[in-house]
Amino acid sequence: MKLVLTEFVSLDGVSQGPGSPTEDTSDGFTKGGWLVPYIDEQFVRRTSGWLDLADGLLLGRLTYEAFARDWPQITDPDDPYTARMNSLPKYVVTNTLTEGSWNPTTVLRGDAVQTVGELKTQPGRELQIHGSARLGNALLAAGLVDVLRLVVAPTVVGSGRRLLKHPSEALGLRLVEQEVTPNGLVVLEYETVGAARVAEYEGVTAFV
Q1: pTM exceeds cut of 0.85
Q2: Of 38, 72, 101, 168, which one is least surrounded by beta carbons within 10 A?
Q3: What whole-number distance in Å separates Cα of residue 120 and Cα of residue 3?
Q4: Bridge-based pairing state of the strands 186-195 and 105-108
């Protein structure tokens, strides 16, 4: 399976609490809900289409516990995400949980890089990380992420947990898809391509 990291971020890179003021208040964060004013039909079509490509969800413990609390409570049959979120296999990377409450769930204990690397060898289309930015960063730095999908909101939050902490090595990405929704969300899809390229600027003639 391809490992796909899907994240909502502000213009200044914050990924914490996009969905509501109470979604994630860890470390005293009080500015949640910054994505919601910009959600539109095009955003919903794109993100629900991404979810349809998933054969499994990979989550860190904190995101898993929040999702396990909230998603089973949504009963609207017309919600474009709920049926898939609740029915897909869930894999939670944790050494503190022994079992999951949001079925079907598999607990992945031990070294995250090793266990996720083994999981990627299983047949399927996409293993998707939603939220779980710290897990995503660790797997990105380890070279396990194949695709990075970002939805960038036109807002500067100013504080909160940033998505992309610099990995141990500079990482190269290739833009494969982009669009802008009517409400100003920038949707970007990148493939990882190994080490980032570097060059030395030598003036205008370097671009001719």
Answers
A1: yes
A2: 168
A3: 7
A4: unpaired
